[in-house]
Design goal:
Layout: E1 4-5, H1 15-24, H2 43-59, E2 66-71, H3 74-86, E3 92-97, H4 100-112, E4 114-120, E5 141-147, E6 149-150, E7 155-156, E8 168-171, E9 188-192, E10 203-208, H5 225-230, H6 240-255, H7 258-278, E11 296-299, H8 304-316, E12 319-320, E13 331-334, H9 341-358
Parallel strand pairs: 1-12, 3-4, 3-5, 5-8, 8-9
Antiparallel strand pairs: 2-10, 6-7, 9-10, 11-13
Helix pairs in contact: 1-6, 2-6, 3-4, 7-9
The chain binds pyridoxal-5'-phosphate (PLP).
Amino acid sequence: MRKMNFGAGPSVLPMEVLEEIQRNIVDYHKMGMSMIEASHRGGMFEDMYDECLSDFRKVFSIPDDYDVYFLGGGATLQFTMIPMNFLLKGGHADYTRTGSWSNKAADDAAKLGNVSIVFDGKDSNYSTLPDPKEIRPSEDSSYLYLCSNETIGGIEWQDFPDTGSVPLIADMSSDFLSRPVDVSRFAMIYGGVQKNLGPAGATVIIMRRDMLDKRNPGLTAYMDYGKHAKERGLYNTPPVFSIWVVGLVLKWIMANGGVEGMLEHAKMKSGYIYDVIDSSSFYRSPVDSRYRSRMNVVFRCPTEELEAKFVEESKKEGMVGLKGHRSVGGLRASLYNALPMEDAASLAEFMKEFERRNG
Ligand SMILES: *Cc1c(COP(=O)(O)O)cnc(C)c1O
């Protein structure tokens, strides 16, 4: 029987997509070879690639003055590439510290240049976010950086700051394509695909073309966004398998209501879980309810022993991935786009039943 997969990443993929891979992995659409055997300089790959990029633009409403392509190295490589390219020598960049992922990005940037912290959630143990209206970039900032959804802490920006002429850069790894976003407010959006979009291996880069004029000189080839933009992401061998599957996931998103449909699903699925938490004195959410994530629902039981028991017993019900991140403990249910509605409902039922037996 198929598991209900609440893992934070790599994570659940749509069954239809897995079956499509299975049908085509050996002989891609009767072309006599597999996509993962094909040259990235050949027609078979490039036809698939063009369609994937054009579907991405369509699904996420990406304006024409943005480049879209995939890189390797995970989202983590971007923590280095962004400041290398855009944190101008002698200048500074603004960072919001809202949890594990933005903190890692800020720490890496601080090794390469001057970083100003415009928000630090440390005092609240990263359980809340600022009001976007109160975030102001500092003068002459090279860019302002945020993480739209903190995968480990379980908090998500519901709206974004207006940074005026200062470029806004966002890591959307864990809520990519889970809601409509006005891309034109951002200079750059990026994210690893292994949470909401496909198998590990690719990172999507969406970048307004005028950013390329602002980059530092003297970059080595791979670290230079200019190189990748010029070659449409094919400067070196791209993560072919991952890109193929992202293309299939994009078709699946289109067939399921687009990003608006994903948002409706995300509201319902997270609603099931938050409703149980809110109506219980057994479960507790450690995060500010105004900013709680629709993708990663973090919650606690009264004791760590009960949390361990919850994980053990949920496994027997076919539910995997509910243990919180090792850095924070507790429990976490990741409810990415591909998680079926029924799985979220089953988890809510299990939670109620677990409380009845242990509360
Ligand atoms: C998972 C994750 C990352 C790291 O991704 P890698 O591909 O493992 O480098 C970065 N940011 C966010 C928000 C994430 O969820």
